[in-house]
Amino acid sequence: MPTSRPTAAPTPARNEDDQRFLDDFATMSTFGATPEGGVDRQAATEPDNAQRRWFADLLEENGLRVVYDRIGNQFGLLERVPGAPYVVVGSHMDSQPTAGRFDGAYGVLAAAHAVFRVASEEPDPASPPVHNLAVVNWFNEEGSRFEPSMMGSAVYTGRLGLETALATRDRTGTTVAEALAPTGFLGDGDGPEAVFCAEIHIEQGRVLEDSGSSIGLVSASWAASKYEITVRGEQAHSGATVMPDRRDALLGASLLVVAARELADRFPGVLHTAVGKLDVYPNSPVVVASRVELLLDLRSPDEDVLARANELLLERVAEIEAETGVTVERHLSHAWGVNPYQPSGVDLARSSAERLGLSSEPIMTVAGHDSINMKEHVPTVMLFVPSVSGVSHNVGEYTEDADLIAGLTLLTDVTRRLGAGELGPATPYVPGEDRA
Amino acid sequence: MPTSRPTAAPTPARNEDDQRFLDDFATMSTFGATPEGGVDRQAATEPDNAQRRWFADLLEENGLRVVYDRIGNQFGLLERVPGAPYVVVGSHMDSQPTAGRFDGAYGVLAAAHAVFRVASEEPDPASPPVHNLAVVNWFNEEGSRFEPSMMGSAVYTGRLGLETALATRDRTGTTVAEALAPTGFLGDGDGPEAVFCAEIHIEQGRVLEDSGSSIGLVSASWAASKYEITVRGEQAHSGATVMPDRRDALLGASLLVVAARELADRFPGVLHTAVGKLDVYPNSPVVVASRVELLLDLRSPDEDVLARANELLLERVAEIEAETGVTVERHLSHAWGVNPYQPSGVDLARSSAERLGLSSEPIMTVAGHDSINMKEHVPTVMLFVPSVSGVSHNVGEYTEDADLIAGLTLLTDVTRRLGAGELGPATPYVPGEDRA
């Protein structure tokens, strides 16, 4: 069992609504549950589908209208002001193959309960509803079955073409379209018009735990460079071929994995590097590898550090080529700078936290989130709750009940205020406009 | 095109029999032919099966009786002395997924033509046949579809249990028994009784090319230690998790790949090391690997060097564990010392080469061959012909026609002399005896 943090969130009296939230979260965690206490709910697999059916029922029981767009994003709509645009609140319910229970799922359920709570309140005559409210469960945020990640929000925001996304294949050759077709989750619309967005997520780090804060107010996302790398050597007998004749693609790839780690060690705390995926060809016990494909990421909260790390990586690639005789092809598949969330949204969330007596602090997000796509179009509030020991993408991922409830309480207030137009006028984003 | 070696084998007048051999070899190379000029004939796949059907016809057309044992080894029997044991001559026709045309296939066809030639000769009254002759095409020497390699000869020689071999599964879950059942290549006997063995193979190195010899007389096999290694780390978010918290199994595995190469560089020429197969779990773009499985081999012609290399590897493993926080489990799956072929067989082959005017030299084999299993039971002659540039397990593998013919000529003489009992009395090996 994880230990309690020294300064836990103030425990609110656990009222009926809070208990209902925790009960619903326990139910959610049964979909794709693994024996180790985690979940396996990759996009459009049966556990993901079953959970979506359950979630649609929950939304409808609470008076929301459930609709799907053309990429399978699931929306629960609460129309309070006919024809007005929506405050879109939510996250994703799909998971990595061996994942924890909280990543994404917490944010979707918290969004639903926040909207249920706001919907059940008597309208405040001093601050009547201006916008409608939408709960969203974005399709395929994790990208473990269908690359790239954040697919549903990328299509919604026009960053990724619909046809490209639908034609993406998993390892067995099944396309997104084929996987979604039998589920009933492929709609014929483009989803609601958005005017603001909010997302709450577990931190996936330990900044909040270390400082003892209950809430992270996400001010920006780290800069990142993501490379698709192919190392080419020459196939040879792994026993008989004399060593100087070998051009071993796996040796070249291994030196790159080590180089990535050494780069991070050179910039402690301000550079994260990773190779999570690496495939060897022909991957035979008696054959020197002719080809290795791998994904290498560099991330930093400082664009200058990232630029320097990219230079050093390039230098090291050239050395590895010279030392081993392999060739290294690098393709920069994704690149973005340090990207701020709208400060007005951060301020609104901070004032809500203060009003509720929740300790908070600004934080940056290293991981990608659907809200990063959304903030390009509408003012977006991103909130974090603590992760015990920063464990993430792991069945041992854990957040205390008190922190889950504190986050829900804050998200409810933020949703209410965004819906009441407290952030002032904003230009609505109409999804699919450029497709029309 | 490969260039000619400076001192090519003396080109024999290309007679009809030699041309027939080259034509048959060209036909063989069409089975599983790849666009790059190589072959893909993994064990019990359709190209392997089609080639075996063609080969059975060739053996029968030349008067041999074709039989299969319980693991699918294919034998062509020439019974000249009723009830006498057999000189077993051959190699394997299966291949790696992207392989050259010569590996194994040359040795099987050369064995067949050697036996055809001996069969067609008038018996020498001074040296009449004492033993019968068998051509063999061993099942699954490569081990790329079903591990371990050298499966057919391992079962024949009792080193591997029949039931274990038949129950071995490929990546799709198909067992050897299931793959062989529909082919008609699963017999109900144990194969012929053997008294001597001979195999010819391409060198898969460049010792012969460098020295200009036509024939390698294999005196021994290198010592080897083969490890199955599991590196365990902890799954984590590959972006968000702070670097000091990561226990990255792929980093640990990569350091091992690099360490293996550095070991080889410490003992130039007398230590070959390799990691050919490496699998990452969960192998996701955004997850730090929790587990990597890999196969690491050390091979040396010097047992003391191998022992020292094993010690150094163990030291390095401990360092890697300490540096990265991973754990490394090593299982020594195969280990053998420097293993001589019977010197009487080497001498017989040398005298044949001299008589035929072929330059030869002693050589060791680094790669495994079916004859390594056979020499544990009966005196065995292993011969090499040159490989251009030492290229092996690669579609660019090449041996000159003149060298192929020289090898066939020598193998014919060796087969004739073994069949005439020139190596003296030997105890026949009865396959399956311990199963009875």
pLDDT averaged residue by residue of chain A = 94
Backbone shape of chain A: globular
Radius of gyration of chain A: 23 Å
Number of domains as seen in the coordinates of chain A? 2
Sheet-strand content of chain A, in percent, reads 15-25%
Describe the largest sheet of chain A.
Answer: 9 strands, mixed
Structural class of chain A: alpha/beta
Distance between the termini of chain A: 52 Å
Number of strands of chain A: 15
Largest contact between chains: A-B, 70 and 70 residues
Task: Tell me the quaternary state.
Answer: homodimer
Please count the helical segments of chain A: 12
Query: Which CATH class of the largest domain in chain A?
Result: Alpha Beta
Order of helices and strands of chain A: HHEEEHEHHHEHEEEHEEEHEEHEHEH
Describe how the helices and strands are arranged.
2 copies of one chain form a homodimer.
Chain A lengths: L15 H13 L17 H16 L3 E4 L5 E5 L7 E7 L12 H16 L11 E7 L12 H6 L5 H5 L9 H5 L13 E9 L4 H5 L3 E7 L1 E10 L3 E2 L11 H18 L5 E10 L5 E2 L2 E10 L2 H22 L2 E10 L2 E2 L2 H14 L3 E6 L4 H5 L5 E6 L15 H19 L17
Parallel strand pairs in A: 3-4, 3-5, 5-15, 6-14
Antiparallel strand pairs in A: 1-2, 2-4, 6-13, 6-15, 7-11, 7-12, 8-10, 9-11
Helix pairs in contact in A: 1-3, 3-12, 8-9, 10-12
